Amino acid sequence: MTLRRRPRPSGPLLFSLAAHVVLGALILNAAFHYDFSRGESRPPSPAQEQVTYVAVAPAGGAVGGSTLGAPARATHPAVGLVAPPS
After folding, report:
1. Rounded CA gap, 22 and 52, in Å?
2. Band of the pLDDT at 25, cuts 50, 70, 90?
3. Three-state SS across the chain?
4. For a surface tag, which of 25, 26, 39, 86 has the fewest beta carbons within 10 Å of its beta carbon?
5. Are 72 and 61 in contact (CB under 8 A)?
6. What is this structure's pTM?
7. Angle at Cα 45 formed by Cα 42 and Cα 50, nearest 5°?
């Protein structure tokens, strides 16, 4: 039984490994030292809204009431909703 030697890695394989190691180091360096959160491609934040509440007087009665201050009275009874028979 003869021992077979494994072939040595070729030049292009060694070059590829070295290039990947260098590119990986560059990407990791950029990831840890560059602030990606301040990129120009991000849209500006919306303007802050200001809400103002207005106090209104309570309703004095039904719409179309009298101007004397007394609430208007209904001329006919209101028809309520009726459930269907089935």
Report:
1. 58
2. very high
3. CCCCCCCCCCHHHHHHHHHHHHHHHHHHHHHHHCCHHHCCCCCCCCCCCCCCCCCCCCCCCCCCCCCCCCCCCCCCCCCCCCCCCC
4. 86
5. yes
6. 0.35
7. 175
Residue with tokens 């490994």: 17
| Residue 16 token pair | 């590829």
Return the residue matching tokens 């990831």. Answer: 31
CA–CA distance, 76 with 60 (Å, rounded to integer): 20
CA dist., res. 30 & res. 23, Å (int): 11
CA atoms within 13 A on the CB side of 78: 5
